[in-house]
Amino acid sequence: MTIARPLRHPDTASAHTMTKRGWWLVVCNVLLPGSAQVLAGDRRLGRVGIVATLLLWLAAIAALVISLVTPQTLYTLFTQAASLWVVQLVLIAYAVLWVVLTLDTLRLVRLVKTSASARGWIAAFAVIVLVGITGTAGYASLVAGSARGALGDIFSAGPSQPPVDGRYNIMLLGGDAGPDRDGLRPDSMSVVSIDASTGQAVTIGLPRDLNPVPFPASSPLHALYPDGYGYDDHCDVDVCQLNSIYTEVSLYKSQLYPKAKAEHSDPGIESMRDALEGATGLTIQYYVLIDMQGFADLIDTLGGVDITVSERLPIGGDENLNHVTSWIKPGTQHMSGYTAQWYARSRHGTSDYDRMARQRQLQDAILKQVNPVNVVSKFQGIANAGTQVVKTDIPQSMLGYFVDLGMKTRKLPVKQLELVPPLIEPTSPDYGQIHKLVQQSLAPATPKPTGK
């Protein structure tokens, strides 16, 4: 007698046979969804289940092969809204199909004909696997939907930019829009220059009190400030320095950048791009603006960050340390978002350069917390917080490339160039020297000769 006959036409009077048959069917449904129907039920439904399962396996194998051969292609595929929509749809459809197949399998088992001792175990096994697989597919679909929404909110749909001199230069602004601030003001300014081939990165930090600041001839601000912004205290705000450019243009000169909004930017950001290009001598293709106020929510979502504190800093209080609520003590600490925010913003007893360094330290600590386990388990919160924290004009079409490039960058040491005293004098900068320092920092390391 073939195995198909007792499975399709069992001896229903034998509890032993029906129990054995029941286990066969639920296990077959787990190993190859649809096979239970082919063996004992609706063959057409079974074929649909088997074909869907095989296609899913083939897609997984193809993704694995692509990740090994050309990972950039896979990153690009899964950072596009259309691809994520397809993934979401497929996961929902497969979850629904799995529910239908499992319920139909339990119908075919005929639990009332199995032995009383096995009846509960067969049903429990089928339901547990059903909940596990459909729950996983449902959560994955939710993640895909959240990713699609977050990517669409954060990244632009603009055209990609080619590398300049083999590098991508990205302006990184750390802004603060806290409750005691009138609007957002960039307090931390740097340019991250990345080799387009190797991923070797150099971070160039600029002080907020840099002045005067030159603009490229192509900038609309060059005609207004031919000798540089802040030269001879010439500006339209109370303090003439690098980070005041954002405020001045946002408040009084937004008409100079009429295309900014359409290009996923704003006039203040574009003026800072011009300023940093003039100061460093680099062409800046993209910007990333990080709102330090929103960092608190992101840090709490990630479960906090580990920071090594070098000196005691106050939480709360005024410039005379009145009404300080508590202190951040020296040593390695696991900080909540609230504490980390004060760590980055605190001005008391330290210089602006110290605060710049703390903000970059906090940014680095957050990047270390973004590991696969954290991302998968807390993706919904990260996506929601991310849309409040990050603004950029990096196009969605370039995400796959930059993810792949970032993987290379993580394997290499990041070079640092801090344009602060004593290396330069912010209030009387020598831009010839600054441009030379920048170019020297970008030069690849020369291997040391080995003696024979």
TrEMBL record:
Keywords: Membrane, Transmembrane, Transmembrane helix. It holds the Pfam family LytR_cpsA_psr. The keyword Transmembrane helix applies. InterPro entries: LytR/CpsA/Psr_CW_biosynth, LytR_CpsA_psr. The chain crosses the membrane at residues 48-70, 82-101, 121-142. Residues 185-370 form the Cell envelope-related transcriptional attenuator domain. The keyword Translocase does not apply. It comes from the Bacteria. Belongs to the LytR/CpsA/Psr (LCP) family. This is Cell envelope-related transcriptional attenuator domain-containing protein. It comes from Leifsonia poae.
